[in-house]
TrEMBL record:
NCBIfam families with a match to the protein in the record: PRK10738.1
One family name in Pfam for this protein: OsmC
InterPro entries (UniProt xref): KH_dom-like_a/b (IPR015946), OsmC/Ohr_fam (IPR003718), OsmC/Ohrsf (IPR036102)
Protein known as: Redox protein
UniProt organism field: Pseudomonas matsuisoli
Superkingdom of origin organism: Bacteria
Gene3D superfamilies found in the cross-reference section: 2.20.25.10, 3.30.300.20
Length: 140
């Protein structure tokens, strides 16, 4: 896997993935930025959420669960001192469908956390306290 990050002046950077997709990253005005893009640490958090949600949806679909949507809401704390690493991240999944089995949803979240989500496992090994929970919304 490869990526390229190009400085575009001030605190603005363009990140390009190996698959050819680009994203703008910028800092807040107090750090010389113009607030034109996402912050790099926000990218890490979004990457974690995307990795975990991808797993949960994939596992539920393979289990033939009638999933209509899945959102994950992340809440994180960072250290007060440099380096301002994440110290705690909580992922809250909201899974919607008709007739979803709670045991399957629980299993999907646990498998993502413990076995499949590279981002979650990597951050956990680095000392970040990562917790997960879920809720099921029954659609009519």
């Amino acid at each position: 896997m490869k990526a390229r990050i190009q400085w575009a002046g001030e605190a603005l950077f363009i990140g390009e993935s190996g698959s050819g997709h680009a994203v703008v990253m910028d800092g807040p005005p107090e750090n010389g930025g113009r607030n034109l893009g996402i912050r790099p640490m926000e990218m890490v958090l979004i990457g974690l959420g995307g990795c975990s949600n991808f797993d949960v949806v994939s596992i539920l679909r393979k289990a033939r669960q009638p999933i209509d949507s899945c959102e994950v809401f992340l809440d994180a704390d960072r250290a007060d001192q440099e380096p301002k690493v994440f110290t705690r991240i909580h992922l809250h999944f909201v899974v919607k469908g008709r007739g979803l089995k709670e045991a399957q949803v629980k299993r999907a979240v646990e498998l993502s956390a413990d076995k499949y989500c590279s981002a979650s496992i990597m951050l956990g090994r680095a000392g970040v306290e990562i917790t997960h929970d879920y809720e099921i919304v029954e659609l009519t």
